[in-house]
Amino acid sequence: MMDLRLFKDFLASLSQVFPVNFDFRDVKGQVLFSGNKKVSLPVSRGLETVGGQVTRKESFQYLRIEDKYDLFGMPILDKGQVVGVLTACDTGFEHDVSGPKIYPAHHMEQLLTHLAGLIEDKLSSLDESEALAEELAQSFEDLNLYARIATQVKTLRFSPAKLDELNKDLLESMRVQMAFAFMPNRSEYNSLITTGEIDAKITESSAFIEALINAIPPDAPALVDNYFIVNNSSQTPGYQKMHREPFRFLGVRIQYGGKFYGWLGMVSFNLKEIFRQGEMHLLISVAQQVALVISNSDLYRDLESFVINVCKSLVYAIEAKDAYTRGHSERVNRCCMLMAEHLDLDAEQQNVLNWASILHDVGKIGTPESILNKPDKLTDAEYEIIKAHPLKGYNILLPLEQLADSLPGILYHHERYDGRGYPQGLQGEEIPLYARIIAVADTFDAISSKRAYRSAKPGKEALNIIKEAAGSQFDPGLVEIFETVFHTSLVEEEQQDNTPTSITLQA
Question: 197, exposed or middle or buried, with CB in 10 Å at 0-12, 13-18, 19+?
Fold first, then answer.
């Protein structure tokens, strides 16, 4: 309720013009302000009586005391409730009892009705201003929340962890006790965040959430706008027996481009709060963003799968050109990934190395088969063609953004630790780590596999050759790692029928 003392000066000025004294009382009878004219004790007590009658009856009241004092009271309403009483007393007979009555009761009723109307209008306008200010403040919070959430959500690689973060923000901002994402056919994205107080009320959260969703009427009008709201479960068919305590529930569809994924939902047992219109629109916007990102994530995975299949086709095409190197890319890849484990590379680094190692020879697709399969020593010109394959591979894969981090491993896997390699003559740790790892695995497999120009060497002999080249051709630290991998994970298998020697994993 507003501070009604704002009207004191106005009513006091009226008392200067008319022989009437005004005062204002709250519903408990306490005088908040009184006019400038002093009244006798009997009048003061009479005004208390009138004020009490007005509060009880919620209407204009008139009282005459000692057959000479006229007292009047009018209720002040705010939102349909009595919030105070405007009282007045006719002071015209304080000194002249025999004189005529100045203000008959019906005239005073009209005057007080007009004054009460002015006060109530002011109260209403102030309430509206306060409500607007509160709505604007909440809208600002909603915009802040949406901006924060949008930043988290808009990513090609959406994850359940991001939905947990999203629901935590919604839980705090919307004053609820449960926030969830429920996707029947995409259970990896299901998310549930609750407060401790609701955990004591709902022991089977998953079953409760499914019951909430299943109880939504398929023909509910609100579903046209992709939401459903329950303000009080005890008064909503289908939800009345869901819990012994009444609760409120807001569910919003997660869908994009006609594809339905599931629901974002809010639950609270605090019925003193409500779901505001702005909050509902915010949740609808968030659900649309989530659906869009999930859709984009699906497209990204499809594209990634397509790229993988393209890359596999390139590898198969290369090995089809050179029967002696069939399986070489896979064997180099296995060795590299074993070394990655011993190097404690994280998942992202291992993924980069995985693609770099499997595609390291992709540039050979442009090398003539006559050179790849030549049984004699290559001429200088032919060797220069062979040396071009790292750069060719780099250029072939350059348009594929998903492989951008793997390209240095492909381009530089023939660089030497002593700087005498190609294509740029990088030295030591100038050579990217992935390229240095591939160089060791690539050379070992080349030595231990049968080629057109020579027979395969046993694995241990190939390992010794690698060790002798540590510090000159190879990173000595990585050679040590490879030796460990060789003794712990690799087994030399002598193939029959003149097929190339291969490296396999131990069981």
Answer: exposed
